């Protein structure tokens, strides 16, 4: 047997992670070039749009819905925790609570539809409904305390999962932030992640 063939693994056991690797590398370059939030959101939106333009790279383990609650899977965290990339997976009918982020974030829909309901918090603490929007595959939304940071996200599909890819300006699963009752009462939380292992982006033996 050919020596190389002997050590080759079946192709289908190694997902093509080159797109996600290219994305996180480009995002690290962006953050090295600027700390201006609007520049990060503008250029980051273009990078995320390119990543979600094709749906051939997310390993299945990070697209699995849970029967009872939405899932947040960590795909990558920058070594300096300047940014993190997650997949959000909603089963039919699942929804987040109303929540904030406390850092900038970009949300791109990879599969399905997401309903986004936006809120603004008055100085006295009450929430004001700012309207809602449907995000479709390939569309990107942005949040930050500067441009609007409070929303509730629901799976826009009644009969199948939806999946989105998010980038945040921190290790988002470790950030203390808040959920809100409809009357504006906050409750702090740290989300963590649904997974204990992350995709291996760095095996270059099968991909460019
Ligand atoms: Fe959110």
Report the span from N to C terminus. Answer: 26 Å
Order of helices and strands: HHHEEEEEEEEEEE
Question: What profile does the largest beta sheet have?
Answer: 5 strands, antiparallel
The whole-angstrom Rg is: 18 Å
Number of extended strands: 11
Helicity range of the residues? 10-25%
- Regions with little confidence, pLDDT below 50 for 5+ residues: 1-12
User: Looking at the structure, what is the overall shape?
Assistant: globular
Strand content: 25-35%
Q: Overall mean pLDDT score?
A: 92
**How are strands sequenced across the largest beta sheet?**
1-2-9-4-7
Query: Helix count?
Result: 3
GO molecular function: ferrous iron binding; oxidoreductase activity, acting on single donors with incorporation of molecular oxygen, incorporation of two atoms of oxygen
Binding site for Fe cation: 99, 101, 151
Pfam families: CDO_I (PF05995)
Family: Belongs to the cysteine dioxygenase family.
Structure report:
There is one protein chain. This protein has 208 residues and is α+β, with helices and mostly antiparallel strands. It has a single domain, classed as Jelly Rolls (Sandwich). The protein is built from 3 helices and 11 strands. The chain has helices at 3-7, 18-33, 37-52, and strands at residues 71-77, 84-90, 98-99, 105-111, 114-121, 127-135, 140-143, 150-155, 162-168, 177-180, 186-189. A 5-stranded antiparallel sheet has the order 1-2-9-4-7, with helices on one face. Strands 3-10-11 form a 3-stranded antiparallel sheet, with no helix packed on it. A hairpin with a 6-residue loop joins strand 1 (71-77) and strand 2. Helix 2 runs antiparallel to helix 3. The longest helix is centred in the N-terminal third of the chain and has 16 residues, at 18-33. The radius of gyration is 18 Å and the shape is globular. The chain starts with a helix and ends in a 19-residue tail after the last strand. The model is unreliable at 1-12 (pLDDT under 50). The chain binds fe (ii) ion (FE2).
